[in-house]
Amino acid sequence: MSKTAAPAQLAADPSRWKALVFIALAQLMVVLDATIVNIALPSAQTDLDISDGNRQWVITAYALAFGGLLLFGGRIADKWGRKNAFVIGLIGFALASALGGAANGEAMMLGARALQGAFGALLAPAALSLLAVMFTDARERAKAFGIYGAIAGGGGAVGLILGGFLTEYLNWRWTFFVNIPFAIVAAVGAWLVIREPAGSRNRAPLDIPGVVLSTLGLVALVYGFTRAESEGWSDALTVGMFVGSAVLLAAFVLVESLVKSPLLPLRVLLERNRGGVYLSLGLAVIAMFGLFLFLTYYLQIVKGFSPVKTGFAFLPMIAGMILGSTQIGARLMTRVAPRLLMGPGFLVAAAGMLMLTQLEVGSSYPALILPAQLLLGLGMGTAFMPAMSLSTHGVNPADAGVASAMVNTSQQVGGAIGTALLNTIAASATTAYLADHAAEAAAGGAAGQLIQAQAMVEGYASAIWWAVGILVASAAIALTLINTGRPNMGGPVASGSAEGVDLKVPVIAH
């Protein structure tokens, strides 16, 4: 195995802080896009005549393309050069955003979202690896990733509010068009400022079979969950999708164990601490992604909130995430073992989710939804901080990049599955409630509308109960599998490590 030069041996890039501005701007664009679309979705669904069964694909198409291609994007960045991949990712993301803003139907919208995800999968690993190679001093690296993470957290809040303003006072299409100036400025600035260290490319051949098998396997899995909503769990094609997914993903594992330059070296997954991080985070994000979708519809459709008011209504969750990550997780992660932050963090989030199972048509926002969001944010922020630091725990320096990408992949794929799975559960519960109250629903008028609203809320509550169980499972996995002690933060940066990635603040909304 070839050895790579330790980051500490590389001369510090004099333009590194300027480069950070444009890298952070690109990150802000991606985060804005994620949360803006959540707020704009009800309006876009109405204008483009997207069915309730397919609405989650506006979110899922992005998350699945991003998650499925993220590892491949990281390898492409290593092969083409991180600067080239970063600029191409920005330009492609801008073009896909323009396509989404101009969408005239469901197919065009879903295609644009998938393209955004694909170019985002090229952009994200290139941005992270650029920071890693440009900031060679451990203290500077920590500061750079801290700034990067703060923008990620703050960007989520800005996206929710900006999405509300754009949707309410202009048009939902501007939630896509707003990406274009961000991308142009970031691409031009990156092209002029970023200078990648010489000899840092990885010339290993691409694992095309691995890319094809993993992407098709994940698409089949999510489509199976989505189809179950409309056709039922026993439908032949639904079952076929699940079986096909299992076969494809098993073949992917087999290929990765045989090829010389695998897309995902299995040694990255088999270490118990990293495996525990990927699995617990993936499950936790399943719970969170579905919740964002449900709360958006509950607040706008059931409670009658405007898009702007809905955006502000999500701020307690974002504030909780930032607080939990920077003031609890970051302060305690050098003092206690990671599992003692991750396990309790997921349980606190589960407690917040448990409160939301009590949702009713007339539920009070200040009395129920606000404190539940705070608990969710605090718990997830506290858990995610040590989890990010463990994503490269004990990893071979040559695998540090793919290990960092894997933690993002687990979140994105978990989000894609979560949106589809929980939407399916909610829709099934809503249908069952309407069937049990068919006479009242058929009456029409105010009574009929009330039954319709109650049916929607019944569906949301049923799905949220599943989310509670998923978060408890995440806590159990973290407490069981993760056994490393508190990290030694005083040591030097290891060769090829991704130290500093642990300072990212999570934003759970694609």
From TrEMBL:
<feature type="transmembrane region" description="Helical">
    <location>
        <begin position="276"/>
        <end position="299"/>
    </location>
</feature>
<keyword id="KW-1133">Transmembrane helix</keyword>
<feature type="transmembrane region" description="Helical">
    <location>
        <begin position="20"/>
        <end position="41"/>
    </location>
</feature>
<feature type="transmembrane region" description="Helical">
    <location>
        <begin position="237"/>
        <end position="255"/>
    </location>
</feature>
<protein>
    <submittedName>
        <fullName>MFS transporter</fullName>
    </submittedName>
</protein>
<keyword id="KW-0813">Transport</keyword>
<feature type="transmembrane region" description="Helical">
    <location>
        <begin position="206"/>
        <end position="225"/>
    </location>
</feature>
<feature type="transmembrane region" description="Helical">
    <location>
        <begin position="340"/>
        <end position="359"/>
    </location>
</feature>
<dbReference type="Pfam" id="PF07690">
    <property type="entry name" value="MFS_1"/>
</dbReference>
<keyword id="KW-0812">Transmembrane</keyword>
<dbReference type="InterPro" id="IPR020846">
    <property type="entry name" value="MFS_dom"/>
</dbReference>
<feature type="transmembrane region" description="Helical">
    <location>
        <begin position="172"/>
        <end position="194"/>
    </location>
</feature>
<feature type="transmembrane region" description="Helical">
    <location>
        <begin position="463"/>
        <end position="482"/>
    </location>
</feature>
<feature type="transmembrane region" description="Helical">
    <location>
        <begin position="115"/>
        <end position="135"/>
    </location>
</feature>
<feature type="transmembrane region" description="Helical">
    <location>
        <begin position="56"/>
        <end position="73"/>
    </location>
</feature>
<feature type="transmembrane region" description="Helical">
    <location>
        <begin position="85"/>
        <end position="103"/>
    </location>
</feature>
<dbReference type="InterPro" id="IPR036259">
    <property type="entry name" value="MFS_trans_sf"/>
</dbReference>
<dbReference type="InterPro" id="IPR005829">
    <property type="entry name" value="Sugar_transporter_CS"/>
</dbReference>
<feature type="transmembrane region" description="Helical">
    <location>
        <begin position="311"/>
        <end position="328"/>
    </location>
</feature>
<dbReference type="InterPro" id="IPR004638">
    <property type="entry name" value="EmrB-like"/>
</dbReference>
<feature type="transmembrane region" description="Helical">
    <location>
        <begin position="147"/>
        <end position="166"/>
    </location>
</feature>
<keyword id="KW-0046">Antibiotic resistance</keyword>
<dbReference type="InterPro" id="IPR011701">
    <property type="entry name" value="MFS"/>
</dbReference>
<keyword id="KW-1003">Cell membrane</keyword>
<feature type="transmembrane region" description="Helical">
    <location>
        <begin position="365"/>
        <end position="384"/>
    </location>
</feature>
<keyword id="KW-0472">Membrane</keyword>
<feature type="domain" description="Major facilitator superfamily (MFS) profile">
    <location>
        <begin position="19"/>
        <end position="486"/>
    </location>
</feature>
